[in-house]
Every structure is written in structure tokens, then in C-alpha cells.
Design goal:
Layout lengths: L4 E5 L6 H11 L2 E6 L12 E5 L7 H13 L4 E4 L15 H26 L6 E5 L12 H21 L5 E7 L5 H6 L11 H11 L11 E4 L5
Parallel strand pairs: 1-2, 1-4, 2-3, 4-5, 5-6, 6-7
Helix pairs in contact: 1-6, 2-3, 3-4
């Protein structure tokens, strides 16, 4: 991947950290974006930190414009931004919780796809990989806002795959189950962590999807549930 320019959103998050390191180790030029990203987060010469808030309509275009001005192109977009809030039934869910899930999981995806796709289309090896959730296909009780936002996000990503196949780029989405991250361990300390998904496994899959071997895979919704099936 050393000739590729890669943007990882949520680059210093629970999954994004593993994804960023995987691309850095592959030799790619990696731009890491999040609201709190710092250059010191990754000690690599091929890493650049670009702070951005993708939940707003202005944050994503500013990020892409800055990236293009500095690097000239974008070959791979990996969108890991997302979050969870909830724990209440639909009848008990407040407007603010529902809107927060839309902003984090759906709107951020829309904003970055709208801004980045015209640039990725110019690449001879364009790849877009987004991170959804198992809940997009298998909603559960008391997580309605989260599940709905992730389901809509999957539909948006698959639409992007259809709209851009003429440019010979691929757009795919991964649906992890519960991932073994520090935040999830803290939130669910009594869970069996051995059944959760290893973030490095997801990062390896993303790296493969970004490469030439995955050129025939487009519009795929890929489950990765670990041992919890």
C-alpha cells in the first residue's frame, strides 16, 4: 500500500487506532481524522493528523479540501466514525438521543461520502470501506435509535457502491459484532471478552478490502461476529 493515500476517520478510536496502525505498517500515506486527533497519536513519518468534526455539513468538505491541497489525491477512505447511545425502549427514547445516533452514525457517513467520493473517483484504485454494526441487520430491544441509524447507514453505503461502480471503485461495509475495545470492556465488565471481535481482525479485513485482491467485491455487507454467533 505504500503508493496509496488513505484517510481513516475516527483514527484514534477503539477500532480506528488498529486500522491506522495497519495501514501505516503497510507503507501507506495515512491521514487520520477525528475531533481529538493529534500528530503525536502515531509516531510514524507517513502519518498526518487532521482534526475534523464529521457530524456537521461543513467539517467533511473542509477535511477533504485540506487533504487534497496537501496530498493531491485520495485513494482509500476508511470510515470508522460511530457511537452508541441508548438503553431505553422506543417509547422512552428522547429526541436528543435519537438525533445523536443519526449524527454520529448516519449523518457523518453521508457527509464524508458526499465530500470524498468525487475525489476517490479520480483514483485508479479507489476504495471505500465503512464500519457499520451487527445491529443494522439484527436489531435488539432498547437499542432502537442505534440500530435504525446503522441500518440507514448500510443502505447509504450500498447506494454509493451502485452509483460509483462506473468509476471502477469499490464501496463496501463491514458489520462487526461487539468489539474487544477498552471502552466496551469498561461498559460491560462482566462479559466474556473471548467471544468478542478482535479489532486487529477487522483491521486486517479492511486492509484486504483496500487492496487489489478485493477489486471484484463491491456493495458487500460483510458480517464479522467473532465467537458470539
Amino acid at each position: 500500500m505504500k503508493d496509496r493515500v488513505v484517510l481513516v476517520t475516527g483514527a484514534n478510536g477503539g477500532l480506528g487506532t488498529h486500522v491506522t496502525r495497519a495501514f501505516l505498517d503497510s507503507g501507506a500515506t495515512v491521514i487520520g481524522a477525528s475531533q481529538t486527533i493529534r500528530q503525536s497519536d502515531f509516531g510514524a513519518a507517513n502519518f498526518t493528523a487532521l482534526p475534523a468534526d464529521l457530524s456537521t455539513s461543513t467539517g467533511a468538505p473542509a477535511l477533504i479540501n485540506h487533504l487534497v491541497a496537501r496530498f493531491g489525491r485520495l485513494d482509500v477512505l476508511v470510515h470508522t466514525v460511530g457511537g452508541f447511545a441508548g438503553g431505553q425502549s422506543i417509547a422512552e427514547t428522547e429526541d436528543s438521543v435519537f438525533q445523536r445516533m443519526l449524527d454520529l452514525n448516519l449523518n457523518s457517513t453521508f457527509h464524508i461520502l458526499r465530500a470524498a467520493l468525487p475525489v476517490v473517483r479520480k483514483s485508479s484504485c479507489g476504495r471505500v470501506i465503512a464500519i457499520g454494526s451487527r445491529a443494522a441487520l439484527e436489531p435488539g430491544a432498547n437499542v432502537g435509535a442505534y440500530s435504525a441509524s446503522k441500518a440507514a447507514m448500510v443502505s447509504l453505503v450500498r447506494t454509493a457502491a451502485l452509483e460509483n461502480k462506473d468509476a471502477d471503485i469499490t464501496v463496501n461495509v463491514i458489520l462487526p459484532g461487539t468489539m474487544d475495545t477498552p471502552a466496551n470492556r469498561k461498559a460491560m465488565p462482566d462479559a466474556d471478552f473471548s467471544r468478542w471481535v478482535d479489532p486487529d481482525t477487522v483491521a486486517s479485513l479492511i486492509l484486504w478490502l483496500a487492496g487489489d485482491s478485493a477489486r471484484d467485491l463491491n456493495g458487500a455487507v460483510i458480517p464479522i461476529y467473532g465467537k458470539d454467533i
